[in-house]
Amino acid sequence: MRRIHPAGLFEAICGPEMHDMKNGRTYQLRAVDSSGEQTTMHDPYAFPPLLTDYDLHLLNEGTHWRSYERLGAHVRTVGEVTGVNFAVWAPNAESVSIVGDFNGWDRRKHAMRKHIPSGVWELFIPGAKPGLLYKFSVKARGGHVTEKCDPYGFAAELPPRTANIVTDLESYTWNDQEWMANRADGANALNAPHSIYEVHLGSWRKNHNGATQWMNYRDLAHQLVEYCHKL
Q1: Which of 62, 137, 172, 202 could tie 107 with a disulfide, CB 3.0–4.6 Å?
Q2: How many domains does the chain have?
Q3: Residue 186, SS3?
Q4: Sign of torsion, CA 44 46 51 57?
Q5: Which residues fall within 8 angstroms of residue 162, CB to CB, at 6 or more apart?
Q6: Banded model confidence at residue 211, pLDDT cuts 50, 70, 90
């Protein structure tokens, strides 16, 4: 490919043999950076948007009751290629990019597509996997760039770090069968005692005995349930 812009934009015009490929998305790009490190990857922009017009319609209405299945970061397989589809609602942004440890936190590498006029930005990154750290890099109309956490993120780093973590919920093993069975019974749900305790988990309690002063959800759950039970 030949460089057509000093900022790093390259172009290649392929012959008719490319049109004969059974799946035009299977081609890969090979990049060599200034240090000589070589990377081979699929082209994210060869894959179509995965959000449907109906998804966008419901999101615009504010009536998409399962928006958590569409927005955020979700492991998807397109054809024979598995990756992660990222989507976020940022209607007033000038541009939105995905940044993370997989692209050196460089917002130029994975600029997202905007669904007009919905204000939803989306991009499928082939080869991305669970466990990767990411944020959305949002450029405002005034030019200011801010890295933001995913409002639909399923996992995040412990403070003071703030990046989200790509998580595949389909591979998660649930262990709440007994609780779900009791909830389904629900015969005495309205008559059973309830305890409502509003709490900000991030500042409720710190672990001063461990290697880190911050606790994760599992650590907090045991202490918080016991604390509420004693109220």
Answers
A1: 137
A2: 2
A3: coil
A4: positive
A5: 135, 149, 156
A6: low
